[in-house]
Model the fold of this input.
Amino acid sequence: MLGVESQTLSPASPRARQQGGRGSLGQSRPRGVDSTSIRRLSAGRWSKASLSWEVSFDVVGGPWWHPLGFAASVDPLIEEANVAVPGAVTDPSTIVTSDVTIPTANGSIEGYLARPAGNAPRPGVIVIHEAFGPVEHISDLARRFAAAGFDALAPNLYTRGGAPDPSDFPDVFAKMFGLSDAETVADLEGGAAYLRGLEGATGKVGCIGFCSGGRQTLLFALSSPAVDAAVDCWGGFIDRATPDDATTPARPAPVVELADRLAVPLFIVGGAEDENPSPQVLGDLESRLRAAGKSDVTLRVFDGVGHAFLADYRPSYNEDAAHELWPLVVNFFQAHLG
Done:
């Protein structure tokens, strides 16, 4: 079992920080069939104009809301379309994918399923999308988990109301904050039950989420017995329900206030340069968990990177940090779901 641990990790190459977090293009790393960022941009409905927004940090609560970090444009991303990504699927015949329908207590939702080929027993992992919805990058991550030996399910938590237009910030903001925490937990419980019902499933299910999905992963781990291990990647707004600190029927309390309910191993990941969640907010979460007697918690804050450093379709991507994080996540799930 993992003990409570805080550690700051520094990407191996300073060039990654000099290039605005995109990282180097080390030729020794694989560029698999799913590593082309231009394809992801198209599938994810990003336009060059939308990728260049400038938004008011006073309104949105920090740079977490800028889709690309700060003033980055799409041009550097297109120039480096073949970035090396960790866990890339180099042989598509080793996995099987499909669009699926997931029954939940509140009706069915859409999902994307990726499984290892063959009949070997395997645990499951739920992969929760960012605030922008189930863009191609999330499906790609599901395929990477399948290649690593997991049944991976990426649910569309926006099924009922429709995913936001990534180029329309008010739409993203409204739909993300409009999701009900209670309904989200029920949908994730439906996802966990779906994974447990698959042929060859071992019955163990983990959950990982990014950005708003990181918050939802933490919420799930603190609210439901349906998950066996959780990885929260830079979940924003965990210390307050909304940007103005108000609670709403959809978000009745800040997630950190539920810390004493944790009953599963938890891996928390952040960037030292992120402002939502900041390292201070993550430290407060760890302190709350420690005070509640929770020992199966690991906090890792990566130096020199900010929000979304695993999102290889955005200039926030940091190749060195991403390659360091990925095996940590896979090993965490193997240790607690195997």
About this structure: Residues 319-337 form the longest helix (19 residues). Strands lie at 5-9, 95-102, 109-116, 122-128, 151-155, 201-210, 229-233, 266-271, 297-302.
